[in-house]
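Reply to thread "Modeling small-molecule complexes from scratch"

Following up on the discussion above, here's a worked example others can learn from. I took a protein sequence and the SMILES for zinc ion and predicted the complex. Inputs first:
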Amino acid sequence: MNYDWSEYRKRRSLFILVMFSFIPVLIFIDSISKENVSLFCFLIFIWVFVIFFPTSWYFGKTPCPRCSKAIYLRSGFGFLFSPKCVNCDLKINKENN
Ligand SMILES: [Zn+2]
């Protein structure tokens, strides 16, 4: 049976974009905060809690094409690099299973 992975790929792209934007964000925040360490830590904290965690959650909540439950989350916990759906063991990104 063929499953539609387009939603998964869209969310994964967003997550990877946010993950790899960390170094440019770090450099940008460093240039803004100059020598002010507490401002630097505050801006990193804001970036992690406002951008990174919600994006991770959004990616983890991707509906599985077979069981339509969150692909990486079970009971609110999960592993974002699992090779298969944590609920039904469907292999990620395989067209035929
Ligand atoms: Zn599943």
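What I'd highlight from this example: Residues 64, 66-67, 69, 85, 87-88, 90 surround zinc ion (CB under 6 Å). The two ends are 7 Å apart (CA to CA). Questions welcome below.
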